[in-house]
């Protein structure tokens, strides 16, 4: 039983008032709840600047503030749990889309001929799909290599070999 539920000795009238107080949210005010109730009953229109003693005693006796704070914490936790579940479901859906796209790209590669090849489109698709899947699986590479438009596999390989040679030269004299 949550502390925000009706207490065993709490009269229904006061529990209803507590419920309105609790539902007013974190910026709640006992005085504001009292004023609204009085206005709804058709009470006097003059502004009230203090809470009647009975309201003050009831809120203290049944710990309205602590119970409302417990409700707020419960609601925050429920929101966080729902948010995390939705976030996970969204990630799974994105991964499914990316995997389907990857499968379509594989089929396109198998049927691609040099005469009809649009390699830049296939390469761009593969790059985008790989980047997105890596991000979804938290598998970002430690070091990235930038592919330039028009770069060939030979250019990329020569670039890596040149980098490796440069790294090797620096370590030989150590």
Q: Report on the biggest sheet.
A: none
Global shape? rod-shaped
Round the mean pLDDT to the nearest integer and report it.
81
Structural class: mainly alpha
Helix content: 55-70%
Residues in β-strands, percent? under 5%
Terminus-to-terminus distance: 70 Å
Number of domains: 2
In brief, what are we looking at here?
By secondary structure, this protein is mostly helical. The chain is about 70% helix and about 0% strand. It has two domains: about 10-75, no CATH class; about 90-170, no CATH class.
Structure notes:
- The chain is an all-alpha fold and 174 residues long.
- It has two domains: 12-77, no CATH class; 91-172, no CATH class.
- It has six helices and no strands.
- The chain has helices at 12-23, 30-40, 53-61, 64-111, 119-136, 153-172.
- Helix 1 (12-23) crosses helix 4 (64-111) and helix 4 (64-111) runs antiparallel to helix 5.
- The longest helix is centred in the middle third of the chain and has 48 residues, at 64-111.
- The model has no long low-confidence stretch (mean pLDDT 81).
């Amino acid at each position: 039983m949550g502390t925000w539920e009706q207490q065993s000795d709490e009269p229904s009238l006061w529990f209803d008032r507590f419920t309105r107080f609790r539902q007013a949210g974190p910026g709640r005010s006992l005085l504001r709840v009292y004023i609204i109730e009085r206005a709804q009953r058709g009470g006097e229109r003059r502004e009230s600047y203090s809470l009647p003693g009975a309201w003050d005693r009831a809120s203290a006796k049944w710990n309205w503030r602590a119970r409302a704070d417990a409700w707020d914490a419960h609601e925050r936790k429920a929101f966080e749990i729902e948010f995390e579940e939705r976030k996970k479901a969204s990630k799974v859906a994105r991964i499914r889309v990316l995997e389907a796209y990857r499968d379509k790209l594989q089929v396109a590669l198998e049927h691609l001929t040099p005469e009809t090849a649009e390699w830049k489109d296939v390469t761009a698709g593969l790059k985008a799909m790989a980047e997105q899947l890596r991000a979804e699986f938290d598998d970002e590479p430690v070091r990235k290599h930038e592919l330039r438009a028009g770069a060939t596999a030979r250019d990329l390989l020569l670039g890596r070999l040149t980098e490796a040679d440069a790294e090797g030269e620096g370590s030989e004299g150590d």
